[in-house]
Structure formats: structure tokens, C-alpha cells
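Run tRNA pseudouridine synthase A through structure prediction, thanks.
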Amino acid sequence: MRYFFEIAYKGTNYAGWQSQPNAIGVQAVVENALSKLLRAEISILGSGRTDTGVHCEQQFFHVDIEHALDEVSFLGKINSFLPSDVAIRSIQRVKEEAHARFSATERAYEYRITLKKNPFLEGQALYYFKDVDLALMNKAAATLVGVHDFEAFSKVKTDVNNFNCNLKRAEWVKEGDKLIFHISANRFLRGMVRAIVGTLLEVGNGKLSLQDFKLILESKDRKQAGMNVAPHGLFLTRVVYPESIFQQ
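Sure, done. The structure for tRNA pseudouridine synthase A is below.
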């Protein structure tokens, strides 16, 4: 029987979703907890990977379990086995062909910036003190919407068949002393959001023109784009699936 688990985590103490040689990932922590609870070796498959230090408000993974679960009871049990910075939000039975990664139709991220030093946002927002032209940044961001080749904003060594993504939203919103970049697409490349944000900030502070930004996208050359911003400001906020995959 296949189940989807909805998970949230603070990424500060983890090497992203997957473990690295010298650091543990969220996936391993969850697999360890499930294996202890179910008294069997459990492997899970996530909807995608997050990099070291990136946070997650909503992600999913699927797991195959021999016997039916009491979702409500099991939710309480699994959370008691997990550390305080990892939480399972919900458990739902899905059809056998449902896949946490390949069935997803949309993913959304936010990159959060604080314009004033705020100790309560330490580790959860980038402190950025330079003045930026928000309107110009949004003009540049708007050119990303639609289907484009995003190789210029992808990590160089990555195992993908193509660099095409269909962006549905790319927009900066100012909320008091905070700037939040909202971006959603059918898929994302490794390092893509952080590279886009870093390049848009260079547009905002006058280092790049709107035309420069368009040429960077067309170049398909990572060296032309700006630096990756720090991971602690990035949040995976939503993963969307078709209703048809869930058991009625």
C-alpha cells in the first residue's frame, strides 16, 4: 500500500534532503524513524531534493507499507520519533501508481530577505542592506515566466535531460521590512532559485540592466549569471498533485 507523507523541516542542521559524505540529510532521519516504528528497513522517495540549509514548509515523500495504517494514530507516533526540527503534517493513502516526484505538477518556493537586521529572522531570511529598485526587479522577473531554457541559472554538474522549465510565477513582494520572492514552476533545476535571486538583486542594485538580464537567460551560461544567494533564505512552500492520485 502506498502512502504520501507531507513533511516540513527547518533545514539549518541538515545537508538538504539527501545525506552527504560528512553530513546527514532529512531523508535519512525520516527513514530511520520509520524503520524503528515499523520494525523493518524502510526506504522513502521524496518529491525533490533541497540543498544544504534550505528550509521546507511543504514537501512530500511516498512509502510502500504492507499493512494499512491508521493515519491519525500513526501521525502522532512518527512525530514522536522525529527531532523537533522535522515534522510530518499529514499522511494519505494514494493509488499504487502515484509517485511523489513524477506525479507532482507544480512546485513553489519563496526566497525571504530582511532589509533591517532582525535577530528573530537569523537563519531564516537573508539580511540585505543595499537599496534595490523593486519595480525593475519585477520587470526582469516577469521575463522568466513561461517555458525557457534555464541552464544559465543551473548548477553546472547536474544530471538532467534538459534545462527547460515552465515558470508560472516569478514576483517580488514587499511586506514591511521584508522582501519575498515568489516563484513557481513545473520543475526546478539544482541551484536555480538561488541563482535567479542573486542575479535579480544585481538588477535591483544597478549592476545589471534589464537587457543584461535577458541576455544572461539566453546565454545558457552559468558564468554570466550572478552568485547564488545564501541557502537559509530559501523555503520550499508548496508541491501540487492532481486529485486523481489520491484514494477516495
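The chain has a mean pLDDT of 95.
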